[in-house]
Amino acid sequence: MANDDYDAEYADALKKIDSAKAVKGNSEIRFQSLENRLKNLQNGIDVSSIESTLRSHDSREHPICRPVKEKSATFTFGSTIMKLSDKPEFLVAPGPPDMSPYTVFNFSEIP
C-alpha cells in the first residue's frame, strides 16, 4: 500500500533540501545507525543480525534501543521481527530487546 495523494509541490520542495546541512534529530540518527549496521554486514542479513541491530546503543543520546531510565517516559517497550520464508516466524521481545529475549512464534504448524 502506498500513499499517492500528496501535493507535488511538497515533493519538489523536499528535493531542494540540502541533507548535509539538515539538523539531525532523534529519528535521523537512529535511522542512520540502522542503515549503517545493515549495510555493513559481511554475511548478509539474518535474524541474529537484526536482533543485534535492534538491541544496539550506537548513539548514547539517540540509541536504536532506548533504555529504561527512572525519570524518562521514553524507552523501547517492545520489539518485533517477521521472518518471511517458507516457514514464517514472528519474533517478539516483550520489553526493551537489550533486556528481553525474543520469543519465536511459528505459523507453519496447525495447533
What attributes does this structure have?
111 residues; 3-stranded antiparallel sheet; globular
Question: How would you describe the overall organization of this protein?
Answer:
This protein has three helices and three strands. With 111 residues, the chain is an alpha+beta fold. It has one domain (22-106). Helix 2 (26-39) runs antiparallel to helix 3. The chain is globular and about 50 Å long.
| Helix percent band | 25-40%
Helical segment count? 3
Kindly estimate the percentage of residues that lie in beta strands according to DSSP: 5-15%
What overall form do the CA principal axes indicate?
Answer: globular
